[in-house]
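Ticket closed. Logging final result for TIGR02611 family protein.
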Amino acid sequence: MSRMVTERALEVEIAAGERPDRPLRRMLRALRSAIGRRPWLLRGYRIGVGVLGGLVLVPLPGPGWLIVFLGLAVLGTEFAWAQRIAAWLKRRLASFWAWWRARRAARA
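Final structure:
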């Protein structure tokens, strides 16, 4: 039961961090809707997002998983499947860190 409560609390915390009421998010949503009204621009935008999130970020040096998460975040701005995977990964990562903190606290 406590694990369910903890997972629900993590989901609420993640959702609170992604509130759409921030000015930058409102501006980006308005820009995205303006792009969506022009089919030729929308096609180019989706291709650009796919290239940036899938191809450009892969050969970059650095921590491997960080690049994977960043690529999913970029792809998630346009593709629903990537957004679902990124949300699932966020929940799993938050759950892992909660477990890790509890484990460290039990050791101490």
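The chain has five helices and no strands. No further action required.
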